[in-house]
């Protein structure tokens, strides 16, 4: 189940983005409604098929501008939509509706695009034990929401930041002088129960990671045939070690990777290669 950050976290982000868009004031809307308080209603319409994510965030955008705005999703987070389908209806003061329109739509279209592509990846391996995992390749400032969208689409979150878990990558290994030395030095300082993951690209590196009791071994950019050998090696030597595959994962290759027996498949593609889902806001519908 996808979980949004609490209002104390989410609202600070939304305030920032609203201020960026509104600036010193909405010249158009405030000029039109300077002398009156007018209200209206309308709908959000999907212009293409996809998976919806972000309507609850959109509702919060309008609420922050005016608590009198009623924004009601007509589809649940993670549900599919079709072209011309109404996905939300709203009622409230025009100034709040029009000032919040762009921020609310931009967020929902972006997050729905991520959820849509994530769902396509997740469905490719839905009948296999391997789980789809996102990465830290996110837009600065949007990580919490982009990772929320991958959850909506059917993935699970990898670490949110550098403080979540230890991941020893190729540059760490090079700087430390080897996998064994890197694990030994890090294990002395990290708190319990933080895990240690090691990135490997060869079977020799896999052997070294096993020998030094890595908690998770990442098989990075390995051909499927080599990955199969690595998975069997890890399972025989230490079945408690979790195995993650990463690198060049596409909709065409993800199933073959999952069939090697890995526990997790991490990919940045659902975020970095997604396109916005086209939505529109229509007053008076």
From TrEMBL:
Q: Which GO terms describe its molecular function?
A: nicotinate-nucleotide diphosphorylase (carboxylating) activity
Q: Which GO terms describe its cellular component?
A: cytoplasm
Which positions in this protein are listed as binding substrate? 102, 135-137, 159, 169, 199, 220, 246-248, 267-269
Q: What class of enzyme is it?
A: transferase
Name all Quinolinate phosphoribosyl transferase N-terminal domain ranges: 26-112
Read off the InterPro entries from this record: Aldolase_TIM, NadC, NadC/ModD, Nicotinate_pribotase-like_C, Quinolinate_PRibosylTase_N_sf, Quinolinate_PRibosylTrfase_C, Quinolinate_PRibosylTrfase_N
- What biological-process terms (Gene Ontology) are attached? NAD+ biosynthetic process; quinolinate catabolic process
Which EC number(s) are documented for this chain? Answer: 2.4.2.19
What Gene3D superfamilies does the record point to?
Answer: Aldolase class I (3.20.20.70), Quinolinate phosphoribosyl transferase, N-terminal domain (3.90.1170.20)
Q: Where is the Quinolinate phosphoribosyl transferase C-terminal domain?
A: 114-282
> What SUPFAM superfamilies does this protein's entry cite?
Nicotinate/Quinolinate PRTase C-terminal domain-like, Nicotinate/Quinolinate PRTase N-terminal domain-like
As for what it does, the entry says: Involved in the catabolism of quinolinic acid (QA).
Q: How does it assemble?
A: Hexamer formed by 3 homodimers.
- Family to which the UniProt record says this protein belongs: Belongs to the NadC/ModD family.
What is the name attached to this protein's record?
Probable nicotinate-nucleotide pyrophosphorylase [carboxylating]
The record lists the organism as Moorena producens 3L
């Amino acid at each position: 189940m996808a979980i949004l950050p609490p209002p104390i976290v989410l609202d600070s982000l939304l305030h920032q983005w609203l201020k960026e868009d509104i600036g010193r004031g909405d010249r158009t809307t405030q000029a039109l409604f300077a002398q009156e308080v007018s209200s209206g209603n309308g709908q959000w319409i999907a212009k293409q098929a996809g998976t919806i994510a972000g309507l609850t965030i959109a509702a919060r955008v309008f609420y922050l501008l005016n608590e009198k705005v009623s924004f009601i999703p007509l589809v649940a987070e993670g549900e599919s939509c079709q072209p011309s389908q109404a996905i939300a209806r709203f009622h409230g003061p025009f100034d709040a509706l029009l000032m919040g329109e762009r921020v609310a739509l931009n967020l929902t279209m972006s997050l729905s695009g991520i959820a849509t592509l994530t769902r396509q990846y997740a469905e490719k391996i839905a009948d296999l034990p391997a789980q789809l995992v996102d990465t830290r390749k996110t837009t600065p400032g949007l990580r919490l929401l982009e990772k929320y969208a991958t959850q909506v689409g059917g993935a699970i979150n990898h670490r949110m930041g550098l403080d979540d878990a230890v991941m020893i990558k190729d540059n760490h290994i090079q700087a430390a002088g080897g996998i064994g030395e890197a694990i030994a030095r890090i294990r002395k300082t990290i708190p319990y129960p933080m895990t240690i993951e090691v990135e490997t690209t060869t079977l020799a590196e896999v052997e070294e990671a096993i020998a030094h009791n890595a908690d998770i071994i990442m098989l990075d950019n390995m051909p499927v045939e080599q990955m199969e050998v690595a998975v069997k090696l890890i399972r025989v030597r230490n079945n408690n070690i979790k195995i993650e595959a990463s690198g060049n994962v596409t909709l065409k290759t993800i199933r073959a990777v999952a069939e090697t027996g890995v526990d997790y498949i991490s990919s940045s593609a659902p975020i970095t290669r997604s396109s916005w889902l086209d939505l529109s806001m229509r007053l008076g519908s």
